[in-house]
Every structure is written in C-alpha cells, then in structure tokens.
Amino acid sequence: MDSEFHSRLWARVADLRAEAGIPSLLAAVGKHGVVAAVAAVGQADVENRVPATGESVYRVGAITKSFTAAVTLLLAEGGELGLDEPIDRHLPGTPFGRVSPRMLLSHTAGLPREAPTDMWETMRGPSSAALREAFARVEFVAEPGRRWHYSNLGYAVLGQVIRAVAGRSCESVIDDMLLRPLGLNSTSWSAPDGAVVGYRLDPFVARVHREPVLDQGAIGVAGQMWSTATDLLRWGYALAGREPAVLPVGVVEQMHATHTMVDTSGWTRGWGLGLALRRHDHGIVAGHTGALPGFRSALAVDRDTGMSVAVMANVTGGIETDAVATEILAEVLREQPAQTPVEWFPALCPPHIEPMLGVWWSEAGETILRWEIDGLHARLATDPETSDTRFTEAEPGRFRAVAGRLRGELLLVTHADDGIELHWATYPLTRTPRGAER
Questions:
Q1: According to the 3-state scheme, what is the secondary structure of the chain?
Q2: pLDDT digits (tens, 9 = 90+) for 216-272
Q3: Where is the DUF7586 domain (predicted)?
Q4: What percent of the chain has pLDDT over 70?
C-alpha cells in the first residue's frame, strides 16, 4: 500500500466517523495476513479521552460464528461428527433433534433468532445447563432446510453439539484448534484491560451513553469474542485458504460454498457454512459482521488474492460496517488485481502417489494428475483454470473428490501387471488415448 492509499484511507475513515457522529472508527487492510494499512480515528474511551489505535481491542460480536463454524467443520473432517446427521445423536430430547449441523451452520434449520431466555433484559446469557433447559421451549419459525433465517440460537446449539462431541467447551476447542495455532493472541472471550468502551448515540442530543457489557454465557459461541484488526486480518488470511496447516482447503471450500440464498430476488447475497457471501464487481466477498450493544464490526475477505478488510466501531448503531468493509476491499482490488503471489512451499509427494501422477486419458479428453501442497489434484488439459479437483485419500486405493469438478466421486486405483489402472466416477483412465495403441 503506497502513501497515497494510506492518506485516502485515513480521510475516508475520518469522514465516515464525523458524518455518523460516532466515538471511533477503525479500518484496516490485510495483505499476506498482516496489516498493510490501518486508520483509527476517534475515542476508544470517551470519558477518559483514550484515542483509538490500530491495536485497540473491540468487541467483534457475530464474527465469532466464523470460528465456531470452522471448528465444527474440522471436527467433521476428523470424523467426530457428521454434517448431515441429526443433532439428536448428540443432544437427545430436544424439539429440534432432526435438524443437522449443516443446517445450523447455514442458518437454514428453521430455528428462531434467539434462545427463549431473558438475556436481552438482564444482559447475562444462560449457563450450558440453563440453555439446555431452554431448548425445550423452542418453536420452529420455518420448516428445517426450507429457507434462510439468521439464528444466534442455532450457533448456541452448535456450541452444545461441540461440547458433547469434544467433551469440553466449544470455546476451549476454538482456543486449541484455531487461536493458538494461528497466533491470535489478542483475541479473547472477555474484555481485556484497556479494551474499547462501547456506546450508543443519544437520539436527541449530540452525546453518547455507555452501553452495558453483555455476557452471553453459553450463547457466547455466537458472538462473545473481542479482537484486534491485526488478529482479524490474520483470520481473514486463513479463511482465504492461506493457512492450510490450520484450516485445510477442504474446510475453506465448504465455508465459501453457497448453501442458501439470502437475497432470493437479486441473488446478490448468499450464505456458506459460517460465512456470508456477497456478489460484487470483482467476484464474491466472503466474511461476517458483528453487532452487539456498543459495537459494530465487519470482516471482508477476497479468496482469490487472500486480501481482507476489517472495520470496527464502538457504537450500537449509526454506521454499516459491512458496506464500509466491502467498499474498501473493492477499492483495494481495483488498484491491486489478482496478482498477489501465493506463498510457495515444496510439495512432498508420498511414494505411493507418484505412479498416479502425469497425463491420463478418458473419453478422448486429457486429464493431468498433480501432487500439490494440499494434496492430489486433477485438471482437464483443455480447461485447467476451472476444472481443478482436489482429492483426499479415504483409504488405500480409494480417493474422494472433496472440491471442484465431480466433487464427491471416487477415484479408484487398482494394480495390474503392467502398472496401475485408474477409474474416476467409474470412467476408465488410460495412459494413452483409446485407439492410439493400434
């Protein structure tokens, strides 16, 4: 990012903050997982006149859901739960036992927005035991799987499923599987000392009032986190698939795949598994927003370049952080199109895979098998850009396509006297085109 961009970013943030009349506003751009530009304007603590900085800790609300979704998918990839199995298998006796983790992740389970508790009056969420008791009072607002309906309750249910599967809290699973491995040391489940103070605008006088700090209890896996721009941009880098050792490509694929449409008329907004998806001129922006008393936030990610934008404000309303983040990301992409180099690592191929690599023919078409950093890939020679398929080895001699063309189909390997034979989705693959041996 050059100095001119930094200047424009500061001017944009200052103008937006002044126009909205809010205590503080922060916007940061991430490149290669680190902060490439940041602008923080205003007061993190109005009463004590503490200025907001690029490292201020804000409440990020529902961005928490992207972490909860990621660990759910990691557990599913490890075989500890099934995305399409009824949750009754892990939480028996609820009135919504037939819904699946996939429905909960994509907000299509038909559950109401909130749990039937007094959290929004007392500003204290229920314990796990109290939440489980409240499950008995839940009523559906839609037939499961029929339509999108945003649900904090749905993610609270996921938290209980993870607790049942892992034998410990969902928060501790997120800490161990995501926060610590990625080095997100400024992300936490409660406000650290010196955290930004949340406010609401007075509707009649140009002043602000402190908001109470909401403790969501067992519902916190839907929105309890606090974080910094640095940590959010590192998380955005992982969500773009650039940290495969922590967040494998198969998990990233599922998070970004459209599972339902939110905007059913214009088809501009959809939902993946844990991520909101918005169509714009440069493609699809993925991410999430957060909105809790005293705070608004947004994380926008461009998967193609790995670039991301985080926006945070310490106010209940008055600014649409999602729109701000998307607009800044669009400007970045206009100036820096998809030329960001992907970090390169040597791909160490297992010996039993090597005989499979190279050119194969099927139905008069040429398919190239390659081993890459994230596993075995197949591409059509005539369309390498859009035909990429990634496999995982289900068991010896059986590879499942987990992303891309013919996803879900099996690639079978059998040994013959003159080498190996491959069948993909039952189609035979040969080393030479049919008829060439004549």
A1: CCHHHHHHHHHHHHHHHHHHCCCEEEEEEEECCEEEEEEEEEEEECCCCEECCCCCCEECHHHHHHHHHHHHHHHHHCCCCCCCCCHHHCCCCCCCCCCCHHHHHCCCCCCCCCCCCCHHHHCECCCHHHHHHHHHHCCCCCCCCCCCCCCHHHHHHHHHHHHHHHCCCHHHHHHHHHHHHHCCCCCECCCCCCCCCCEEECCCCCCEEECCCCECHHHHHHCCCEECHHHHHHHHHHHCCCCCCCCCHHHHHHHHCCCEECCCCCCCEEECCCCEEEEECCEEEEEEEEEECCEEEEEEEECCCCCEEEEEECECCCCCHHHHHHHHHHHHHHHCCCCCCCCCCCCCCCCCCHHHCEEEEECCEEEEEEEECCEEEEEECCCCCCCCEEEEEEECCEEEEEEECCCCCEEEEEEECCEEEEEECCEEEECCCCCCCC
A2: 999 999 999 999 999 999 999 999 999 999 999 889 999 999 999 999 888 899 999
A3: 350-431
A4: 96
Q: Do 76 and 83 form a contact (C-beta atoms < 8 A)?
A: yes
Torsion of CA 276, 338, 368, 423, to 10 degrees: 0
pTM equals 0.83
Rounded to whole angstroms, what are the CA distances from 351 to 25, 357, 370, 398? 53, 11, 13, 16
Task: For residue 168, give every residue at least 6 positions away whose Cβ sits within 8 Å of its Cβ, in sequence order, or none.
Answer: none
337 pLDDT above the threshold of 90: no
Structure tokens at 111: 């559950």
Domain boundaries 1-343, CATH class: alpha beta
For residue 434, name the pLDDT band (cuts at 50, 70, 90). confident
Structure tokens at 265: 């008329």
Q: Which two tokens stand for residue 44?
A: 């993190």
CB 326 within 8 A of CB 313: no
Q: Which residue has the tokens 């028996």?
A: 92
